[in-house]
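Try it yourself: sequence plus adenosine-5'-triphosphate, in.
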Amino acid sequence: MPHAPLIQLENVTLTRGGRVVLDDLSLDIAERRVGLIGTNGSGKSSLVRLLNGLLAAEKGRVTVHGLDAATQAGELPRKVGFIFQNPDHQIIFPTVAEEIAFSLEQAGMPRREAAKEAVPALARFQRAHWAERPVHALSEGEKQFLCIIAVLVMRPALVILDEPFSSLDLPTRRRLESLVAGLEQQVILVAHELDAFEGYDRVIWLHAGRLRGDGPPEAVIAAYRAFAEALA
Ligand SMILES: Nc1ncnc2c1ncn2[C@@H]1O[C@H](COP(=O)(O)OP(=O)(O)OP(=O)(O)O)[C@@H](O)[C@H]1O
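Structure, out:
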């Protein structure tokens, strides 16, 4: 039985820096594991930024897990966890425990309780020993892992990862992939690593702000590879 769409874009147009980057785009997304691919500048990051309220469409309607992105934008960050390509864009506190405590506070926990709960929260990800570590002393992979933990402790309904693997070595990437694979939440992954979508329900291919492909990963990725080969 088809599920009701968790995410809906209706005739969405977005302009950035005077250029149309999403062009009258309509999408219904009900699947739990969704990949987003496309060449540089095709609009992937712009699209996912509409879903967590970092950008607003000037035309059309965006609905995310029951929230209207235009009128309920303030509520989106609690529903939508966002993991950026560069962990330094997300991490703001000097120590790991402070970063996690801040996330818990953002999720509505009183400050004192959040400070006490940070270590148990880290322990759920087998990282209690990181609590007092200065964030700047973590490796890139460890920082990315911390960002994911910081998002997951907020228990979002949707987790968006925007090119999370670019600076990670293969073992660290695999560890993150298996963490993501085990999540109960809906996941949208933006990645250039085309083998990252194994087991995904659906892959969406954006090109110049429009849908160029959409369907099961194997078919969409094969079409994208053929397109890339033809360009090379
Ligand atoms: N901060 C910005 N200000 C103005 N225009 C921007 C900005 N960021 C992106 N754009 C424009 O939006 C277009 C789409 O960018 P976007 O980051 O959404 O693409 P992308 O598919 O995520 O690309 P990449 O794979 O390179 O990350 C770009 O071609 C660029 O012209």
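One thing you can check immediately is this: The chain has a mean pLDDT of 92.
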